[in-house]
Amino acid sequence: MEGLSARTVPEHFANREAAAELLARSLAAYDGKHPLVLAIPRGALPMGRIIANALHGDLDVVLVRKIGAPDNPEYAIGAVDEDGRIWTDPIVSRLGIDGQYIRDEAARQLKVIKARRVQYTPIHPAIDPQGRIVIVVDDGVATGATLGAALRLLRQQRPARLIAAFAVAPPDTIARLRPLADDLVYLSAPEPFRAVGEFFTDFREVKDDEVLQILRETPPPV
């Protein structure tokens, strides 16, 4: 669902924080239901904190990594989740991308996931999503490979309800994501769509130090 009318949503967002505040308004129905907000590192962590605080929920991360195209690493042709499962876009077969490339790149990204889990766990042990209202947050979605992998992983962990929340995505990606979640909450679905960053005035890189600080400041429930 689109939580706010088109007239209340800017064509460009000042930054991730401004988008998160709008998403929190769109997600207000979950306030008081103790949702678990799972942000995709690193960019979505500042957004996840704002949303979790607004909804009086818990904050954690869901660890997935995109698999980039051989000639364009920023273009996701698939993703790998924390359990090592690989999800690929149908475009892989059309482009004739070698399966060995997919496996090698997935293995490389899985090492990043494992390293992050080692970093995060001592300061913020993972929260079990089973039986919880789970809101997966991303700043924006291009192909949907990474968010789709996160939703598939979490569905297997049996949340009570699974929601995907993001600022911006193209309409065809939104259509692909719909079957993977109980609800989609987004702010804008523009066409044409080239890259997520073009819809933010400030789309700075979120550094590891900022992620770790956010996790330290939002301890898991006792």
From TrEMBL:
The keyword Protein transport is assigned to this record: no
Top-level taxon of the source organism: Bacteria
Alphabetically ordered keywords of this record: Transferase
Pfam entry (one): Pribosyltran
Gene Ontology terms, MF aspect: transferase activity
Gene3D superfamilies with a match to the protein in the record: 3.40.50.2020, PRTase-like
Annotated InterPro entries: PRTase-like, PRTase_dom
Record carries keyword Flavoprotein: no
Domain spans labelled Phosphoribosyltransferase: 18-175
Protein name, as recorded: Phosphoribosyl transferase
Source organism phylogeny: Bacteria, Pseudomonadati, Pseudomonadota, Acidithiobacillia, Acidithiobacillales
